[in-house]
């Protein structure tokens, strides 16, 4: 961790299916293993086996592992920072399952798998919601009966917090300005998208809410809609709550509008070939991001820098251009030549732009590693 070198990275896919896949990368090499991976315990054991493998491993033994950091999507109001995982923490994560049914259960399974295989190794939870716990009540409360909040925890939590926190610190470093002196709007744009207003280093508002569903149009998520639409369509089409949830989370967004794909690269190609629905989906996405930027600028009484990150934010040259064409009123001017960049830190605004525009690739893994290191240091 002294030089934050990435020793190895990898991915385990198709857990529980007939043929699982483990991809392991180290140095300039890659190894792919195809075999049945029945559960997460087996998956974690495979990861540990390959990390200590004599030919492609990067550590000599399990003794080299001091701690494991886990990304956890929903920590509710209980966690405003990363924390050592205890039995009490696990119980709190279980209580948050209803608020993140697609994300928290796999997070919990991963933690339990590591605990089973490495019972004496410290486990740390890093929460997507934690960074947004600095939002004031006027930003996180909804206009529903107050007991919904007190009894059921109904409020805006926000997500992608680990990414928003990293990008805010990184753009401040690149600019050579303390983050405590900057008003930043970070646009985390990918298959899931959220924007955050980060005022002097703290989140004061964000577009996602009680769940990761609201905000701007996303790959397959609907984003903000009139809530009465849900009741109307459930009654008209005879849909159950689960069916409606699936429609909003997996069949809406740019996929639902275009009928083509949830991948913005596919949409760009289809729009270029004259597909009007694909063009409409992109226009809607760009417009909604523009509106969100305006709202978040108002929340901070101005903005100094707008950053673009995640899959679309880092690589979508045309998407950034489409968004920034509507931001001149803020004093944000895009330099078309500088914008011709993908996947690296870059200033993309003109020299006379009063609001700076940057591409900043996110690095949630390094934030998890740093937080884990810090917490382990405190426990020794």
Automatic annotation (TrEMBL):
Q: Where does substrate bind?
A: 71
The cofactor note from the UniProt entry for this protein is: Mg(2+). Can also accept Mn(2+).
Q: Which domain of life is it from?
A: Bacteria
State its cofactor. Answer: Mg(2+); Mn(2+)
Pathway connected to this protein: Metabolic intermediate biosynthesis; acetyl-CoA biosynthesis; acetyl-CoA from acetate: step 1/2
Question: Where is this chain primarily localised?
Answer: cytoplasm
**InterPro entries reported for this sequence:** Ac/propionate_kinase, Aliphatic_acid_kin_short-chain, Aliphatic_acid_kinase_CS, ATPase_NBD
Q: What is this protein called?
A: Acetate kinase
Instruction: Specify the species.
Output: Megasphaera hutchinsoni
């Amino acid at each position: 961790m002294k030089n934050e070198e990435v020793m190895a990275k990898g991915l385990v896919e198709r857990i529980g299916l007939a043929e699982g896949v483990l991809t392991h990368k180290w140095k300039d090499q890659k190894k792919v293993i195809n075999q049945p991976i029945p559960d997460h315990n087996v998956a974690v054991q495979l990861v540990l086996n390959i990390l200590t493998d004599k030919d492609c491993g990067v550590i000599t033994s399990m003794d080299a592992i001091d701690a494991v950091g886990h990304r956890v999507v929903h920590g509710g109001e209980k966690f405003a920072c990363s924390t050592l995982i205890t039995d009490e923490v696990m119980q709190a994560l279980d209580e948050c399952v209803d608020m993140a049914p697609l994300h928290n259960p796999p997070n919990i399974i991963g933690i339990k798998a590591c605990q089973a295989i490495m019972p004496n190794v410290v486990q740390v939870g890093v929460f997507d919601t934690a960074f947004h716990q600095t939002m004031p009540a006027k930003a996180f409360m909804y206009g529903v009966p107050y007991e919904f909040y007190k009894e059921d925890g109904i409020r805006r939590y926000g997500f992608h917090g680990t990414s928003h926190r990293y990008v805010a610190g990184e753009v401040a470093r690149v600019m050579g300005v303390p983050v405590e002196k900057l008003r930043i709007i970070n646009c985390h744009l990918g298959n899931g998208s959220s924007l955050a207003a980060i005022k002097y280093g703290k989140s004061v508002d964000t577009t996602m809410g009680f769940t990761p569903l609201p905000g701007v149009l996303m790959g397959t998520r609907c984003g903000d809609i009139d809530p009465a639409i849900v009741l109307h369509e459930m009654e008209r089409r005879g849909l159950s709550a689960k069916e409606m949830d699936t429609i909003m989370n997996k069949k809406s967004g740019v996929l639902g509008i275009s009928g083509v794909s949830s991948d913005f690269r596919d949409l760009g190609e289809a729009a270029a070939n004259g597909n009007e629905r694909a063009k409409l989906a992109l226009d809607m996405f760009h417009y909604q991001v523009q509106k969100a930027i305006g709202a978040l600028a108002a929340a901070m009484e101005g903005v100094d820098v707008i950053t673009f990150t995640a899959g679309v934010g880092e690589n979508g040259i045309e998407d950034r251009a489409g968004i920034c064409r509507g931001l001149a009123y803020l004093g944000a001017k895009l330099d078309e030549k500088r914008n011709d960049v993908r996947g690296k830190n870059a200033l993309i605004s003109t020299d006379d732009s009063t609001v700076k525009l940057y591409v900043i690739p996110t690095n949630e893994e390094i934030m998890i590693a740093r937080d884990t290191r810090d917490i382990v240091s405190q426990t020794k």
